[in-house]
TrEMBL record:
One cellular-component annotation, GO: endoplasmic reticulum membrane
UniProt gene name: Selenon
Identification of the protein by name: Selenoprotein N
Domain EF-hand, residue spans: 75-102
Gene Ontology molecular function terms on file: calcium ion binding
Bias kind Basic and acidic residues: ranges: 1-13
A Gene Ontology biological process term: membrane to membrane docking
PANTHER family assigned to the protein according to its UniProt record, in alphabetical order: SELENOPROTEIN N
Family annotation (PROSITE patterns): EF_HAND_2
Region of interest (Disordered), ranges: 1-25
Amino acid sequence: MARALPDERRPHSPDPGAQPAPPRRRARALALLGALLAAIAAVAAARACALLADAQAAARQESALKVLGTDGLFLFSSLDTDQDSYISPEEFKPIAEKLTGSVPVASYEEEELPHDPSEETLTIEARFQPLLTETMTKSKDGFLGVSRLALSGLRNWTTAASPNAVFAARHFRPFLPPPGQELGQPWWIIPGELSVFTGYLSNNRFYPPPPKGKEVIIHRLLGMFHPRPFVKTRFAPQGTVACLTAVSDSYYTVMFRIHAEFQLSEPPDFPFWFSPGQFTGHIILSKDATHIRDFRLFVPNHRSLNVDMEWLYGASETSNMEVDIGYIPQMELEAVGPSVPSVILDEDGNMIDSRLPSGEPLQFVFEEIKWHQELSWEEAARRLEVAMYPFKKVNYLPFTEAFDRAKAENKLVHSILLWGALDDQSCGSGRTLRETVLESPPILTLLNESFISTWSLVKELEDLQTQQGSPLHRQLAGLHLEKYSFPVEMLICLPNGTVVHHINANYFLDITSMKPEDMENTNVFSFSSTFEDPSTATYMQFLREGLRRGLPLLQP
Ligand SMILES: *[C@@H]1O[C@H](CO)[C@@H](O)[C@H](O)[C@H]1NC(C)=O
Ligand SMILES: *[C@@H]1O[C@H](CO)[C@@H](O)[C@H](O)[C@H]1NC(C)=O
Ligand SMILES: *[C@@H]1O[C@H](CO)[C@@H](O)[C@H](O)[C@H]1NC(C)=O
């Protein structure tokens, strides 16, 4: 059962000398998915059929390795997208373009977004400040063991690819809500396609697939930052989700959240993935999308880290991978003003110049919008977040607020302490947890009823501990950090910060990936006879043990 699904990615490691993950670790996430037995059985059957094909593919790989060597084979397989061991003209295209220096002129975007001279256009400006490399963990040892080549795509990316670009108002049609969409009810502009059963998309790619339909506008917007945006991330949750936040007679305000990433390398270098935590923003557009009043898109920069980076340094996708997190101060697109007609007609239908005889551009006057219904920015952001991360149906409070609330309600604190963020794409460590146990209904119910939940970055607590702030906050942070081990620690605490129970995520994932037979032998956990996903059962056990130890110590 543990091998029935695609391999999990290797665990995060900030340590340049880290060993490849042990096989058990790699297999563990698979077992986490145990809940849906039927589906797993189906995959297992398919897997058996695939074994023969695998053996043949392995033999082909073997002989290719002899001919090309590791790096050569890597380059070859990154181009061989259908993995048939032959390079077709289509697959060779990126190399041909690189060698001949020719870039195809007519891009697919222009094909899909034809220009109509009578429509309104919108100018969008990109503001970009490069990633601060000193915020990367690997900068602490001066990027020891990281080849300059690996980081060259990152170091070279100092400006936005297009500082400004002109769009037709109509191109923003994909942001229009579906008919009858209610205020605050999220919908998917680009639905995610990954699930625990599909696994993740290959790391071993350089060029984004041609965007289709609603992906085109997102691709073009993100392409203003860098020429190789992938509108769908390799890992779940991917896609673009939106939410109607205000309605007037003729306008909508739509807030959105995009999970997308960039490929900073090109052959012959190895892939380097740059994954901002999220892109968010809003658009105010007329109900027929002929006029855009306002548009903004940005990577939030209020936390100390907001970008995940992963790069390969060898032919194996699973073992030759480096990971780091960093901070990008600014990555933002904004409309310079509302969309305006490119051609202006006078009352008789004659074209008039959009510049006055003095050379001054015509000034447009825009009607004031009277909103009937409005949703707060915070509420909309929360709904988009829950759409991406169902585990957020439980409220996760900021660290110190959680302890204040726990004191007021006399409850225990359920806390997750991690190296990277739990609720965006900037860290993979939390992915397995949030996509399985933390969103399972029995866990959601127990957390909601009996705990105050919070999660924090290790770096935030380290800062809290050294700041000249409240001694109480310093103590809370200290008690937490004492119990922390890399990469993720789950803790149950009293309102005064004393930790009554804790478990490390790697240990948790290892024990839950044991087969039920192992479990009986080692007697680590006794499972209820009812069919339950082992990781959910184990997390349940962890929470209940926390309650057992903590409840008697709460103030009566
Ligand atoms: C980075 O820039 C240098 C100098 O412009 C160039 O030679 C090199 O090819 C670039 N590298 C990448 C990965 O773009
Ligand atoms: C949490 O509890 C509140 C109050 O009992 C309830 O209204 C809400 O629906 C619950 N949420 C979840 C996710 O169970
Ligand atoms: C918190 O309260 C418990 C139970 O009253 C007590 O044993 C513990 O020492 C307290 N911890 C701190 C840090 O005050």
